[in-house]
Design goal:
Blueprint: H1 2-30, E1 70-81, H2 88-91, H3 103-111, H4 135-141, E2 143-152, E3 172-181, E4 187-199, E5 204-218, H5 224-230, H6 254-260, H7 270-276, E6 280-283, E7 287-288, H8 289-296, E8 300-301, E9 311-312, H9 313-318, E10 325-329, H10 345-364
Antiparallel strand pairs: 1-4, 1-10, 2-3, 4-5, 5-6, 5-7, 8-9
Length: 369
């Protein structure tokens, strides 16, 4: 009897719950409104999953150092040339591809002070991190030599250029100056300052990067499309002395001999050499590497072996996945660079290898076999 009462009670409660739910549903339909709208859909992404690991990534903590345990130390300056194949991940992409940006583009973003970035990373004038640059000074370093373009007179009705009746040349009405500013893809190398030291606490020779300096390739550059647009649209007038050329001209004539054996061209003057070498390398400023690491740790680098496991720029520098050569070693001569006392390029490379071998030999001689 007790079991029968329990079964009847459960059936009655279930029926009442069903009737109550149908009543609420009918009331919502009569009011013309449905249930609460679902939450906002996530922003579009280029993968079927969201990459959260990189967003929450933090720099790997380094071993704390104490001055009393530093047995030996020396400063070195290196150059990372982005034209080398191993350094291409630092140069590409030239344009941002979603979250994938070049190292120079990241520098442009973190230095710029705007609403999205109220606390920009500081950039310093020298590698000793003593004088910080303002945002205006940083922008002034990005300017390139301006170029001057002539303006030609055009017919207002047809839009064609107007030529002089006597000379047949286009008429110039003035000129304009175009200001040029550097782009992240104009960064062609990075200078890094690093410290080699011997830690007695761990009994090893280690290296720490202290600063990074992007170097621009500056110079007045006019693209081919601009040259075609601004060049005078005129055909070369026919020469007045142009005469009939005989089909049976003597192949040993004087003119033919001159074409076969032209005179040697005179060497270019200094002004021509200066124009050819108008591009120059100009350092922008120095970043304090420990201060820059949190930004590098949340920006990914393309991994050709496994795109699902991309590295970060912090991994590239901590793991030293780049190719470089030594530019200078800390010395008594005001830390002079190699090219200041060695002029030949091959000898400069040999001197850099000599310094690198000295570091290797010093570490090797620390141990006895």
């Amino acid at each position: 009897m007790k079991h029968l009462r329990l079964v009847i009670t459960i059936i009655i409660v279930s029926c009442m719950a069903t009737i109550h739910a149908q009543t609420i549903d009918s009331e919502n339909k009569q009011k013309g409104g449905a249930f609460d709208a679902p939450g906002r859909a996530r922003n579009p992404i280029d993968r079927p999953y969201e990459k959260k690991l990189l967003r929450d990534n933090t720099p790997v903590p380094l071993q704390p150092l104490d001055e009393e345990y530093i047995h030996y130390s020396s400063l070195f300056w290196r150059v990372i040339d982005l034209r080398e194949k191993m350094n291409l991940p630092l140069y590409f992409p030239t344009e941002p591809k979603g979250n994938w940006k070049s190292f120079a583009k990241i520098i442009w973003d973190v230095v710029d002070s705007n609403e999205n970035n109220p606390m920009p990373v500081r950039i310093y004038t020298t590698e000793y991190f003593d004088i910080p640059l303002s945002n205006e000074e940083f922008r002034s370093k990005l300017s390139i030599e301006p170029i001057t373009i002539l303006l030609w007179l055009t017919d207002p009705e047809t839009g064609e250029q107007v030529f002089d009746d006597f000379t047949g040349e286009p008429i110039a009405i003035g000129d304009t100056t175009i200001m040029q500013f550097a782009d992240p893809k104009d960064v062609m190398q990075y200078d890094i300052k690093e410290l080699y030291y011997v830690d007695n606490q761990r009994s090893m020779l280690d290296v720490r990067i202290m600063g990074i300096c992007p170097v621009l390739q500056k110079g007045a550059v006019l693209f081919e499309d601009d040259e075609e647009d601004n060049a005078p649209a005129m055909d070369a007038p026919p020469a007045e002395d142009e005469g009939f050329t005989d089909e049976y001209t003597d192949e040993y004539a004087e003119d033919t001999m001159e074409e076969e054996y032209p005179e040697e061209e005179a060497p270019a003057e200094e002004e021509d050499l200066a124009e050819l070498g108008s591009k120059k390398l100009a350092p922008i400023g120095w970043f304090y590497y420990p201060e820059f690491r949190p930004v590098m740790a949340v920006n990914e680098v393309f991994n050709p072996h496994n795109n699902a496991n991309r590295r970060t720029y912090d991994d590239i520098f901590i793991q030293r996945r780049f190719s470089s050569f030594i530019r200078a070693e800390e010395n008594v001569h005001d830390n002079r660079e190699i090219f200041n006392y060695i002029l030949n390029g091959l000898d400069q490379i040999l001197e850099a290898e000599k310094i690198k071998n000295k570091i290797f030999t010093f570490e090797h001689d620390m141990w006895e076999y």
